[in-house]
């Protein structure tokens, strides 16, 4: 019995070591999983690492980790995929905002879940770094512009 336990323990440790983050997940789950690895990272305009990242860098890295090539800027991302209504948002979809008085889109995040039909999204906030926010928040509700789907499944 003890030998069986040791064998099972050795197998589970070996299999955990060979598991690469996000590799066995569906693309939607993998994108969100990888993006969450940046939680708490500080905001840096043009940043692309855990020591400093911006909103489009977070999206770019999360999708790239799943083998999906996408543009690096919010302006270019807004032209990709299919525009969908916010009430159809799913994990992995992109959500865009206008955070300045200009008409162009200036900020984006990745939908991580929905609670009672309201998207929760991960993004790189210029004041708080990488955080998860909700579209229920007055600021984000007012700044909301569009939702896009890049992943089919």
CATH class: Alpha Beta
Summed up, the domain count is 1
State the CATH superfamily name.
Answer: endopeptidase domain like (from Nostoc punctiforme)
* CATH level 3 topology: endopeptidase fold (from Nostoc punctiforme)
Radius of gyration: 18 Å
CATH architecture: Alpha-Beta Complex
Which structural class is indicated by helix and strand composition?
Answer: alpha+beta
SSE arrangement, N to C:
HHEEHHEEEEEHE
How would you describe what is shown here?
It contains 5 helices and 8 strands, in the order ααββααβββββαβ. By secondary structure, the protein is α+β, with helices and mostly antiparallel strands. The chain has a single domain, classed as Alpha-Beta Complex (endopeptidase fold (from Nostoc punctiforme)). The strands form 2 sheets. The chain has a 6-stranded antiparallel beta sheet. A two-stranded antiparallel ribbon has the order 1-2. Helix 2 packs across helix 3. The chain starts with a helix and ends with a strand.
């Amino acid at each position: 019995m003890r030998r069986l336990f040791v064998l099972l323990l050795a197998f589970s440790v070996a299999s955990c070591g060979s598991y690469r983050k996000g590799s066995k997940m569906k693309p939607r789950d993998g994108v969100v999983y990888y993006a969450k690895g940046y939680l708490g990272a500080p905001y840096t305009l043009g940043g692309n690492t855990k020591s400093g990242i911006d909103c489009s860098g977070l999206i770019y890295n999360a999708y790239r980790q799943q083998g999906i090539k996408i543009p690096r800027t919010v302006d270019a991302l807004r032209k990709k995929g299919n525009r969908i209504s916010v009430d159809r948002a799913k994990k992995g979809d992109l959500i865009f905002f206008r955070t300045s008085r200009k008409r162009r889109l200036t900020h984006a995040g990745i939908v991580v879940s929905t609670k009672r039909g309201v998207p929760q999204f991960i993004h790189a906030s210029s004041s708080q770094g990488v955080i998860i926010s909700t579209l229920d928040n007055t600021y984000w509700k007012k700044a909301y512009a569009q939702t896009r789907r890049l992943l089919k499944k």
